[in-house]
Amino acid sequence: MSTVDSFGAKDVLNVKGTEYEIYRLDKVKGSEKLPYSLKILLENLLRTEDGANITSEHIKALADWDAKAEPSVEIQFTPARVIMQDFTGVPCVVDLATMREAVKELGGDPSKINPLAPAELVIDHSVQIDAFGTADAITRNMDIEYQRNGERYKFLRWGQGAFDDFKVVPPGMGIVHQVNIEYLARTVMAREVDGVLRAYPDTVVGTDSHTTMVNGLGVLGWGVGGIEAEAAMLGQPVSMLIPKVVGFKLTGSIPSGATATDVVLTITEMLRDLGVVGKFVEFYGEGVSQVPLANRATIGNMSPEFGSTAAIFPIDDVTLDYLRLTGRSEEQVALVEAYTKEQGLWHDPSKEVEYSEYLELDLSTVVPSISGPKRPQDRIELDKAKEQFGSDIKNYAKEGEEAKSTDVSMSDGRAFELKNGAVSIASITSCTNTSNPSVMLAAGILARNAAAKGLTSKPWVKTSIAPGSKVVTDYYEKAGLLPELEKLGFYVVGYGCTTCIGNSGPLEPEISEAIQDNDLSVTAVLSGNRNFEGRISPDVKMNYLASPPLVIAYALAGTMDFDFEKDALGQDSEGNDVYLKDIWPDPAEVEQIIASSVSTDMYSKEYGSIFDGDERWQALETPTGNTFEWDPNSTYVRKAPYFDGMSMELTPVTDIEGARVLLKLGDSITTDHISPAGSFKSDTPAGKYLIENGVERKDFNSYGSRRGNHEVMIRGTFANIRIKNQLLDGVEGGFTRDFTAGGEQSTVYDAAQNYKAAGTPLVILGGKEYGSGSSRDWAAKGTTLLGVKAVIAESFERIHRSNLIGMGVVPLQFPAGESHESLGLTGTETFSITGLTELNNGVTPKTVKVSATAEDGKTTEFDAVVRIDTPGEADYYRNGGILQYVLRNLVRGSK
């Protein structure tokens, strides 16, 4: 709680007869010149000033922000709330349940382990597309979801009862980020504090990197690892440097042939080229008012894909209209308007503020695009897609086999030729686009136009729609477009992430077998935000992101080897060729259908009972009690090992001696490579563990769903089927060389266990952008539990770097311009890292000395940059991790 008000900022705001305590920004000199996002941080510091962690000096430093200076001032940001999804939320609740027991053992009060800010969890990552292409697909998929995940869901229901201010949105309601913008986001918070009603900006951290979608609503928030989110729930502020802010000016309007998705892919490419890791992006200018809220949310959603911490739009009339449309109360809308205008947070395009860097996009220049085959930023203009595919297939197919094909006969009589490039999955899914009526209705109109011409999806395409909320289905039904989509096989299969998170479900057995037996390079097209290698389906090598209407277009084409301008999609009943331009939706019709089909009562109806769940949810047995009774036979939920043997005293930081390299990796290693979320096979370490524990292959579920069990997750760390460990030649998957066994090939997990038995610490060598992608705390948890003490890379993505520190692993960077390649490191050396012990003296060394000794005795030495960037991170590392730090503080405070 704030105990200091150095600037006399505390005041009262009266909104239609209701009085709110506020902290006035205009009491701080210089605040009016700050970008919108930094004003929100400034209010946060004013309100939480305590004279110790947050001082008047921090507030002045933010007010005097130098746009061009490199970030150097650390501040403590206290988010208003925390949002989670079930893949990352289950391990969070496991950790909190374990912490309650640890506090008790250390002599503290277990009830101190309780969210101090509202925490909401949306179950949206567990539904898998097992059934598709039929009217009962959604029912079958949800039945299977409950059979697979009932144990996890009971655990979450226990958490909802055991912890205060923790709510769970049951399965089948929608995707976390869409539920967030349509219902959970407050935009301006109103909360009783010490008996007084206080108003302040809604801010949020979430255990999913796409938390930034809420930036479209003017809410500052971003994705953090689960461990950081747990700390935030327990009142620990988020340590950060005052960031650079990139001003992104929008002008013009989207042309008729392009969609919001095309805008997002263009912005993603532009910002990746600029380099915005660790920066805020803020949209400004006259053009902002022309960007509908759904498009703003789509842009904000892709912030992790271009690498920024946040990508925010300021609040204006468009924001208020959206709040009204989605059923927010008039009292809430009035508060948002009055508060933001009073505090200088209302968008005024005539006011110039200074930014660190500037970009501009004329929306009228945007052209239809897709991106792929393995990174969101690899944009391809649609009219060049066939040519680009012809070039990319050479990286996947053997030389001379680029056009390889095989004949497939299905049990139901379908027979066809399956070729390299075939679209095996076409899925309208993910928060990025399913929140956006303009692209969703465009997909429906395109389906209607295609069906009217007699076109059908190709017989080898697995088709699906997974809307972000039930409101989508409501407006599809009102517009009469659901039956049109179903004519092409696009039935609603569930309300969740599905394909985008790797829950695309199995391909039909004959198709899967044909792909595997003939080593075909088939493709997936999805309206998502992630297309990393090995993520979508184990059968699919090349993945492409596209707008919902283009997903349907590719289902009709059936292949990526297709030119929509020159190649016909088929013939109509009179034998005339039909091209994409003949069925492309008219933007005027899209707008007219939005106006007539999307209404406030839909949002009020669907969200009126959002926490109730269906009969499946209500029928679940719910454990009770302040502490959880762990089932020793559970393969889903097990007590976390992080606090085993922990004492109140710190163990001194030591240098790393005699370490071996577990993996030597290249550039753009994502958290998907490190900790995959999708399916796995019986012959993997995780599969063997489950079989030994009596789980049948059909009940494996996914890595993501097993995140409450560290035994599965350790075995799945670095087990992505497409990861390439350079210690081995031409081998893909979770394998390495085990130097305790003479350098023989072994699984990463088995080798790590042998190193552990031998008392050998481990390091990982990486390239550029190490740890990009999802805010997946298991990528750091798995790394530390394998015995890795340091990761040495050329550069780190923000979230994973902080997660590594949060789990007691030190992130080190090669000297500028150097790499493991330029230094001649083979990964067979023995490493020592000296200088870390300085941390015991309260000093964070800027560099440490790394010495790599080869088998022939030759030594390579270099000074690695220590990427512990803030004093707060240094405290976490000294404590062995963020949770240990928080736990010790809570125990001290509760005695």
Q: Topology of this structure?
A:
Layout: E1 10-15, E2 18-23, H1 36-48, H2 56-63, E3 74-77, E4 81-85, H3 86-105, E5 119-122, H4 137-162, E6 166-169, H5 176-184, E7 188-193, E8 196-201, E9 203-206, E10 220-223, H6 226-233, E11 238-241, E12 245-251, H7 260-274, E13 280-284, H8 293-301, H9 303-306, E14 310-312, H10 317-325, H11 330-342, E15 357-362, E16 369-371, E17 379-381, H12 385-392, E18 405-409, E19 415-419, E20 423-428, H13 431-434, H14 437-452, E21 462-465, H15 470-479, H16 482-487, H17 509-518, E22 522-526, E23 540-545, H18 548-557, E24 570-571, E25 577-578, H19 580-583, H20 587-597, H21 600-607, H22 615-618, E26 656-664, H23 671-674, H24 685-692, H25 710-716, E27 735-738, E28 744-747, H26 748-758, E29 762-765, H27 777-785, E30 788-793, H28 798-806, E31 810-813, E32 830-834, E33 847-853, E34 859-866, H29 871-878, H30 882-894
Parallel strand pairs: 4-5, 4-9, 5-6, 9-10, 12-13, 12-15, 13-14, 20-21, 20-22, 22-23, 26-29, 29-30, 30-31
Antiparallel strand pairs: 1-2, 3-11, 7-8, 16-17, 18-19, 24-25, 26-32, 27-28, 31-34, 32-33, 33-34
Please explain how this structure is put together:
With 895 residues, the protein is of the alpha/beta class. The chain folds into three domains: 81-365, Aconitase, domain 3 (2-Layer Sandwich), CATH 3.30.499; 372-606, 2-Layer Sandwich (Aconitase, domain 3), CATH 3.30.499; 656-675 and 717-879, Aconitase, domain 4, CATH 3.20.19.10. The protein is 33% helix and 19% strand. The protein has 30 helices and 34 strands. The strands form eleven sheets. A seven-stranded mixed β-barrel has the order 26-29-30-31-34-33-32. The chain has a five-stranded parallel β-sheet with strand order 6-5-4-9-10, sandwiched between helices. A four-stranded parallel β-sheet has the order 14-13-12-15, with helices on both faces. Strand 1 (10-15) and strand 2 (18-23) form a beta hairpin. Helix 14 (437-452) packs across helix 20 (587-597) and helix 29 (871-878) packs across helix 30. This is Aconitate hydratase. Its EC number is 4.2.1.3.
